[in-house]
Design goal:
CATH class of the domain at 47-130: Alpha Beta
Order of helices and strands: HEEEEHEHEE
Low-confidence stretches: none
Helix content: 25-40%
Mean pLDDT: 82
CATH architecture of the domain at 47-130: 2-Layer Sandwich
Largest sheet: 5 strands, mixed
Strand content: 15-25%
Distance between the termini: 82 Å
Shape: elongated
Radius of gyration: 26 Å
Length: 131
């Protein structure tokens, strides 16, 4: 009397579950990559070698026509810029601001933002494009 197994083990590999996972990951990454907008302003940044690891709490942008923006919101004057930064950031220690200035902006305009940062004890990171 021969004893036979009732359940036979299949040695075939089914990749259907793996393709579902891959397609779900592909859709997830495609959707999240379209949501990321580091800066919507078109600026030609000056070139630089070094990079910093500090994460800024907000950004100040100066366009080629010398318009000021805090993140995406336009600011009319330097005084309004200082008031906007004070209300947005307060006086927390170790507050970092990223300055995105077009390379055609006069240095005097950049120094005005530097003076605001120094007066309010903000640390300023000047954004550059890689060399």
């Amino acid at each position: 009397m021969a004893i036979s197994q009732r359940n036979k083990i299949s040695v075939n590999f089914s990749s259907v579950g793996m393709t579902d996972v891959v397609f779900n990951l592909l859709i997830f990454f495609m959707l999240t990559s379209t949501l990321v907008h580091p800066t919507a302003l078109k600026l030609l940044l000056p070139r630089g070698d070094s990079q910093t690891s500090a994460k800024p709490q907000t950004t100040v942008s100066i366009t080629s026509d010398q318009r000021l923006y805090v993140e995406q919101q336009p600011v009319e004057t330097i005084e309004q810029l200082e008031a906007t930064l004070k209300t947005k950031l307060g006086s927390a220690p170790e507050t970092y601001i990223a300055l995105h200035a077009d390379k055609s902006v006069p240095f005097e305009r950049v120094v005005e933002v530097l003076n605001i940062a120094q007066k309010n004890n903000y640390k300023l990171i000047i954004a550059t494009s890689p060399k």
